[in-house]
Specification:
- The longest helix has 16 residues.
- About 35% of the residues are buried.
- It is built from nine helices and 13 strands.
- Helix content is about 25%, strand content about 25%.
- The N terminus is likely disordered.
């Protein structure tokens, strides 16, 4: 003890990976597999973007740890990210929220029924992953509930997205449909798993990896909406190899960090066709000689994807300028 009555501790710097984010504290897994809670020291940003959480699950970080006790640490450095997934904060509309970083792929869980398919949500999700060329597989869950008409809708969705390079898979956690294929998909990769509330994401995760204890929410018969079963993003090791990042159920997706041309460039089939448009800055709405609109009329581009695109543009332009420019 020194003259001031305080204990003197030595500190050590170690590297680790963020495996859980609670918004204030971050669980960091160190090289010896020990896990310690950490706080942030300093300010971290991605370019000019203002973030609600400057550190994400999947981030490789350097932490300053009290050596003797090893109780808590401070995150003092974030290694350069090879990619990240960011969305508009649902609570603070002028800020952005990091979902995950340094992932190999993303899985989006949707349903045709219970709850009903939100087709535009798929395109909004892809708009988060496309800028970083993150592979996405669309999982259509609850196959045991599909009628003949529902099956036809699944086949249509499959055709739309596989034609532009995305994978799809039909699953049922209750009837063990597609579970082996999902394990094969996730094996030896770091995967972000997302979905809207009520689509059975937690039940599906439990079927794939029973060692992961996740709570299961019930769907209200009245609203048809699921309760959130995951409170914070968290990374889990998989017994068959790889890591799974589970996220809270997402209600909706908006974009304050994108301009109309950003959206046009990240609808991949539109971007390819845009080279044939008369104008280099064509937004594929009212401009003459638009190759995208011509392709829609021919049937080679999905009209449903185009409607999603227009709805996203309308939503972006309805936001105030300061909401769309987080560097203001």
């Amino acid at each position: 003890m020194n003259s001031f009555g305080l204990f003197l501790f030595s500190y050590t710097m170690e590297s680790g990976i963020v495996i859980k984010s609670t918004g204030v504290w971050y669980d960091v897994k160190l090289s010896d597999d020990s896990i310690i809670p950490c706080r942030i020291v300093g300010k971290f940003r991605i370019g000019k973007m203002k973030l609600t959480n400057p550190v994400a699950v999947g981030d490789e970080v350097t932490v300053d740890i009290q050596k003797e006790e090893k109780r808590v640490g401070n995150i003092v450095k974030i290694a350069p990210r090879r990619n990240y997934v960011v969305r508009q904060s649902p609570r603070k509309k002028h800020l952005l929220h990091l979902l995950a970083a340094n992932i190999d792929q993303a899985v989006l869980v949707v349903t045709i029924v219970e709850p009903s398919l939100k087709q535009g949500f798929i395109d909004r999700f892809l708009l988060m992953t496309e800028p970083h060329n993150i592979p996405v597989t669309i999982i259509v869950n609850k196959s045991d509930l599909l009628t003949e008409d529902d099956q036809a809708l699944f086949e249509y969705i499959t055709a739309v997205y596989e034609n532009i390079g995305y994978s799809t898979l039909l699953t049922s956690a209750t009837e063990n449909v597609g579970i082996d294929q999902m394990r094969e998909l996730l094996q030896d990769k770091t995967t972000l798993v997302c979905g809207q509330s009520g689509v059975g994401k937690s039940t599906l995760v439990n079927a794939i990896a029973p060692e992961i204890e996740t709570r299961i929410g019930d769907i209200s018969d009245y609203t048809g909406k699921g309760q959130h079963t995951t409170t914070f993003a968290e990374m889990f090791p998989l017994s068959f190899g790889g890591q799974l990042i589970d996220t809270p159920g997402i209600k909706s997706l908006s974009f304050n960090n994108l301009e109309p041309m950003d959206v046009a460039h990240n609808f991949r089939e539109f971007f390819i066709l845009s080279k044939e448009c008369k104008y280099g800055d064509c937004t594929h709405r009212n401009e003459p000689d638009c190759a995208v609109k011509a392709a829609i009329e021919e049937g080679s581009v999905s009209e449903y994807r185009y409607r999603s695109y227009l709805n996203i543009l309308d939503g972006i332009e309805d936001q105030n300028y300061w909401e769309r420019h987080t560097d203001m």
